[in-house]
Amino acid sequence: MAADTKKKKRQLAILTMIAVISISTFLYISFKPSEKAKSYEECKNLFDTGDFTGCVTCLDNYIQTNPESQAYLMRGDANEKIKNYEAALNDYTEFLNKNKSSHEVYFKRALVYEKLGRLDEAQNDLNISCMYEYAKACNYELAKKSGGSGGSTVTDETGHSATDWVTAAGDYIKAENYSDAVVALNAALTLDPNQTDAYLFRGLSFSNLGRYDEALADYNKVLTTDPNNLKALNNRGVVYWKLERYDEAMNDYKTILSLNPNDYIVLNNRGVLNFQMENFEAARKDFDRVISLKPDFAPAYLNRGVNFSKMNDTTSAKRDFTKACELQLKLGCTEADKL
C-alpha cells in the first residue's frame, strides 16, 4: 500500500510539472518569425511577447491550411499594432463574416475604419457594437477629421496615457517584475477602466505573484463583456488549475477547444486534468490528439507515459518515456530507466 501511494505521488508530480511547463510555454515562449507555423499557439506566443510582425508571418503560414476565424482575428490585431490598417480591416471583416455578433470586433474594425478616414463605416460599426451593449462603443466619439484618432486621450500628472502604462507593464512582465507591472496597470485602469489589455496583463501579474483571487477577478471582468476572449479563458484556466479547481479549469479549456480545436497546449493540459480526475482513457485520448497535431511535443509523450503507467500498460509507458527522452526531455530518460 505504501509503495502504491508513493508511486501515485510520483506520477502526479510528473504530470503536474509538465502541465506547469506547458502552461508557461503557452504564455511566454516566442518563436522565430521565419519558422513555418505549426500551430495557432506558436503564432499567439509571438503576439503575446510583442513580436507583431513575426506573428503576422506566422499566421500567414497557419491560415493557408487552417482558415479559422480566431486566426484572422489575431492577425487583424497584429496588423493593427504595426499600423497595417488595410490588412487589419480585411482580417476583421473575415472574422465578422463568420462571427456576426462579436461586439468587440465591430468596435476594433470601427477604429481601423476611423484611422483610414472612413468615418461613416466606422460609425456604422460603432452603432452595431453599441447595439450589443458594448459600453466602449456607445461612449466612443469619432475624430472630426479623416485620418484622426478618437477615443480617450486622457493623461495623468506624469503625461502618460493608459496605453503608455500598459506598454510599460508589458516590459515589466517580460522582465518578470510583476509587482511593478501591477502598479503600472493600476495607473492604466485609473485612466481607462475599460482597457481590456490592462485587465489581462494585471491578471497574469497577479497570478505570477500568487494573488489568485485578484487574478480571477480581472479575467472575469474581461469575460463578462467578451465571453469568448481566448486569452482570458486560458489564463483563468491556469489559475483554476493552480487552485486545484479542476472542474472549472476543464470548463474553460472546453470553451477554448470549441473555438480552436487544434490548440495542442490546452489539449495537453486537459489531458493532465483528466489524469488528475482519474479519467485515464479520456486523458490518453487527449495526449493522442496532441501528438497527432505536434509529433515533436515531448511533454505529451511523457504525460501519456505516466497515464499508461497508471493503466498498467508498462510497455506503452516505456515506449513513450523513451520517445520523450529522444526529444531531449530529461525526465523521460529518468522514467524510462525505471521501467
Structural class: mainly alpha
Number of strands: 0
Into which percent range does the helicity of residues fall? Answer: over 70%
Cα shape: globular
Tally of helical segments: 19
Order of helices and strands: HHHHHHHHHHHHHHHHHHH
Which radius of gyration do the C-alpha atoms yield?
Answer: 22 Å
Q: Which runs of at least 5 residues are low in confidence (pLDDT < 50)?
A: 16-37, 144-152
Terminal CA distance: 20 Å
Percent strand equals under 5%
Major beta-sheet overview: none
Provide mean pLDDT, rounded. 80
Summary, kept brief:
With about 350 residues, the protein is mostly helical. The protein has helices at about 1-30, 40-50, 50-65, 70-80, 85-100, 105-115, 120-130, 135-140, 160-175, 180-190, 195-210, 210-225, 230-240, 245-260, 265-275, 280-295, 300-310, 315-325, 330-339. The two termini are about 20 Å apart.
Description:
The chain is an all-alpha fold. It contains 19 helices and no strands. It has helices at residues 2-28, 40-48, 52-65, 69-81, 85-98, 103-115, 119-131, 135-139, 162-174, 178-191, 196-208, 212-225, 230-242, 246-259, 264-276, 280-293, 298-310, 314-326, 330-338. Helix 10 runs antiparallel to helix 11 and helix 11 (196-208) packs parallel to helix 13. The chain is globular and about 70 Å long. The model is unreliable at 16-37 and 144-152 (pLDDT under 50).
